[in-house]
Amino acid sequence: MTQSATGDAGGERARLAAILFDMDGVMVDTEPLYWAVARELARRYGKTVSDATLRRMMGRGRLESMRIFAADCGITSADPAQLLDEREALMVQRFSAGVDPMPGLNDMLARFHGRLKLAVVTSSPRKFTDVLLPSLEVDRFFDVVQTGDDVARGKPDPQIYLAAMERLGLAPPECVVLEDSLAGAQAGHRAGARLIAVPTELTAGEDFSFADARVTNLPEASGVVEAMIQQASPRST
Question: How is the beta sheet containing 175-179 ordered, strand by strand?
Answer without folding.
Answer: 3-4, 213-214, 194-197, 175-179, 18-21, 117-121, 144-146
